[in-house]
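pinned: reference chain
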Amino acid sequence: MTGLDPALYKIPERAPPIKEEASVDINEPIGILYLTVLLSKDTNLLKVTIHKADLTGFPNSHLQLKSPYFTLLVSGSESPVRQTRHADEEQHPVFEESFLFETEDDLSGKHLLCHLYDYDQFVKTEKVGVVQLRLNSLPHDESLYVEKHIDRCLPESHDHEENYVGELLFSVKSTKAKDNLTLTFFFAKAKDLHIEDEIAVLGLTVRVTVLEDGKKLKKKRTIDNIKVTTNPLFNQEIVLVLPQHVNLADMSIVVDLCKVKISSYEVIGRVCISADGDKRGAEHWRELQHSLNTNNKSLEWWHQLKKVAKGS
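pinned: its C-alpha cells
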C-alpha cells in the first residue's frame, strides 16, 4: 500500500479577517468653534461674533464637508435665526461675522445654539454639529472669548411621521415701498420626496398663495417642467407685489409642491408660514417680519412638506 499524499489532506489556511472600518463615536466632538460673546445689561442685547472653526483635530469624526456654515439662535426667544456665509475652507473655515440678539432679563434655561451645516448644491444640506452656550453663565458688559467643542448631530429620521412627504428649501424676503409690499421667494431644492404615480407626472412646480385673514390675496407658481426626481433642483424665483395696506401680522403664506399632470395640478406636500403655524413655520414668519426694510439677507430654510387632503 502506497503512502497517503499529505497534500490531499492539507487543512486550508484560514482566510484573513475582513478589516472593518473604524466606527464613529457619536459622543466624540467633531471640532472646535471660536466665538466672542458680549451681553449688555442695559439693553439685554447679546452680540455674538463667529470667528472661525477647526474641523481637523478629531481624526475619528470622519467629517468630509464641502461648504460649512453656522446658524445661530437663542432658545425660547423671538429673535430670528441668523446665518453665517457658506465658507470655502473645508477644514479651517473663517467667518468673522457678528450678530445681535434680543434677550430677556431672566436667562434661566436659555441657550445660544450654533448649528453647523454642510451646504451642497446637488444633494441635501446636512446638519452635522451643534454648540450650546448657557446664557445665564455669561458676565454682563464683558467681552468673552470662547472656544467650544462642536458636538455631533445625529441624522434626523422622519419614518415615524405618517404625513411626511419630503422637505423643501427656500427663502422669502419682504420689502416695503411707498405703494406696495413685495415678497420675494427663492426656491432652491427639495429632498426625500415621496412621489406616487411618477409615470403619470409631467413635472414639478411650486405654488405660493398669500392670504390675509384667510382671504386669498395673490397666487403664483414656478415653471411647470422641473424634472421629477427624489431630490429635484428648482433655482426658481417668485415675486409677489401686494397692496400697501397689507399687514404682515394678518398674513399667512401657503407653499405647495405640486405634481404637474395633463390637465391638473396635484399637491404633494404643503408648508404654512404664519404666526400661528407650526414651530418651523412660525420661526420663519418672524424672520420674514425682521427682514422688512432691513439689509439682512434672507435665509434659506428647510421645511417639512406635509400631506394634504385631496382637493385642498
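why pinned: The CA atoms of residues 154 and 167 lie 18 Å apart. The radius of gyration is 25 Å.
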